Amino acid sequence: MHLRPLLLSLTWLLAASLHAELPELIQQAGNTDNDRERQALLEKMAALPSLDETQRKEVASLADFARHWNESGLKFYGASVRGKPHRAIGDYDFGVSNDSPLRPICELYRGRMLAWTLIENSTVRTSPKESKWFKDEAVASFQRVKEAFPKNTVARMYLGEALPWGVVPEKVEGAPEWATLQREQLERLGEIIRWWITHRQKADTGEFGGGWGDDCEMWRWWAAVLLGFDDPQITAAQLKFSRSAVTRPHLKGGFNTTITDVEHAAEDTTDNLVPLMVLEPENEKWTKWGLKLGDFMRDVWTGKNERGQLQFKSFYFSATETAPQPQRAFDVIANVGALHPALLAWQKTGDEKLGAQICAWLDTWVDATARAENGKPAGILPASIRWPDGAVAGAEGNWWEPIKPGGFMHSYYIWPSVITEITDALMLAHVMTGKESYLAPLRSMAAIRLQHLKNPSGELKPGTDAWCADQLAPRQNANSNTGGLVKTLARFKALTGTSEFDELIAREGSEFVIRTDEAGKRELEAALRESLGALRVNFPGFTSEVRSTDRCMRFVQFLVQDYAFDAYKGVTQPKHELLYRMVTGDKNAPRFPQMAVRWLTPPKDIAALVTEASTTKFAAELFHFGKEPREMSAELRQLKPGDYTASLVVDGKMVKLPEGAVKIEKGRYTRLSLTLPAGKLARLRIE
Q1: Phi, psi of 430, rounded to the nearest 5 degrees
Q2: What is the distance between the alpha carbons of residues 136 and 149, in angstroms, rounded to a whole number?
Q3: Which of the four, 370, 383, 448, 505, has the lowest number of CB atoms within 10 Å?
Q4: Where in the sequence is the domain holding 87, given as residue range(s)?
């Protein structure tokens, strides 16, 4: 299987002597970076009259594989090894012998399949033995490609050679550094998104080729462009996909009819309803659907435990039942993911019935946080609460592991899991009800985190206070909502103006907490430069090479310096969530968006930095890079009802706005029209 084909076999030598084109065609097929061109060259080879039956079968088999690579689902090859060990993908049968001169072309596909299995599969990625095997085997395949076809730049990209792409815009005099850096990233991100729309999106269903379950997550990395601005092509593409996705038969009743773990059971609703609710806020259909999720919560997913508290009976459920297996009978942090559309609907409508349900469930988590139980320190949110006894517990004795090591999705559910999603829900419950109790978990964990920063512990034993404090750090990793308590605290500060958590906020990184003082802006610019460095190279890694659409920003995982792939050691993932926070004023990831604004203009030749985003004030800096004034609107999404004044200041002078007075009404978003001057920093303020 892994022998290096140094010489053509005798039969292939004979064919080459009879047909002078053959060696040249093989070199062309191996050296091209265009997969469709490779397919065409293989089909041309298959038609050569000089090939014998064995040779023709090999070329035809490889040409057929190339056709599937280009035209079938992005992970079509997975069907051939389903039910087999993960490593079986390394023995994929291309129908080509080991000593064939076609073998290095097979190695190109083999390396890519191994690489994207590693990037996609958390079980493989988090296993030291499996991850090392996949990385080493993929690298070996790409080395064989490089030796046989030195002009193949895709293979060299996987081996660590950066491929520059795109044009760096010319500097514009007077533009702040943050604006220059942001503008280029928005435009590069937009170019990547438009590639997917043009080359992958199906005209009828709106799918992108990775399967509904992966495609539905793409909007998360689109968010800075998709939610922050209004690009007609990109907005239309997302609406086409999500509208189509929610009409599939298994969602007819309002939620997935198949029992599976919450991350997969909920994505068909959450990852489609949330962007629909943001992009079409006036469509009551989506709000009603969000409210309806409360019915599933009440009638199917939750019950009163033996302590008389409301909790989820399992983290495996469907529209009609929960999983009965004891090893799945846990309420986990990630269960909040099924409720994101409901939380948005509650926030919009103030529905008392839904609010009471959500609060009763959150009360259970507040109580469990306060308890020291089964090794969990007091003041730390548990990873899971067991049903039906309501105890803090894990799968095999460790409170922080709802799933035993090596189990399906272990790395997703292990503490702190998607902790900022549930701390955001607690923060919202406080804002909606005014009850201080919902802040208790935030306060206790913030205190533990701050104490750790002031007096770091040398030993970080899993499950201890110090370990928990370390895990609460904001970090760049495969799951952006793992840890990072500060993002919820920043959201809370932005909405309420509180200074309670300022000391901790000031100590965490500027990538996660945007500060607008001079030192803060320098740190912000450093983070943007690092991010831009990642976006300026390896365009195929964001587009044509991707085989798992939920990993469109994660090609760099393959290039990390060691086998801790989720730590991203030595590489930088593009900071698309930082861009989202800058342009919308939200302080966390977009899966439960709390946007202060949406700029109703395309994300080109513009940069925006929201500097204040509470429920009573809004401020932003804007820079237009075009040569003519720019007419646009700001859709205000977070201000509470009331009368406001708006001002726009350029070069220290007030610029007259079409509407100086702004009226915010309950249940609807107000749009403010403005004209940005060309090449000047403008400061918008509403209060």
Answers
A1: -65, -45
A2: 20
A3: 370
A4: 10-158
- For residue 211, report the phi and psi dihedrals to the nearest 5 degrees: 95, 145
Tally of domains within the chain: 1
Retrieve residue 512's tokens.
Answer: 């996660």
Q: What's phi and psi for 645, nearest 5 deg? A: -115, 145
Asked if residue 219 lies in contact with residue 235, where contact means CB atoms within 8 angstroms, the answer is no
What's the pLDDT tens digit per position in 226-239? 999 999 999 999 99
Could you tell me if residue 416 is inside a domain?
no
Judge whether 108 lies within some domain. Answer: yes
Q: What is the pLDDT of residues 129-164, one digit of tens each?
A: 999 999 999 999 999 999 999 999 999 999 999 999
Q: Tokens standing for 8?
A: 């053509």
User: Is the CB of residue 184 less than 8 Å from the CB of residue 169?
Assistant: yes
Distance CA 264, CA 510 (A): 32
Provide mean pLDDT across the span 205-209: 97
Determine phi and psi for 288, rounding to 5 degrees. -65, -35
- Packing angle of the helix pair 352-370, 419-433 (nearest 10 deg): 120
Dihedral of CA 489/495/497/498: which sign?
Answer: negative
pTM: 0.94
Residue with tokens 């919450």: 262
Looking at residues 591-611, what average pLDDT do you find?
A: 97
The tokens describing 568, both together, are 């991203």
Question: Could you tell me how many residues make up the chain?
Answer: 687
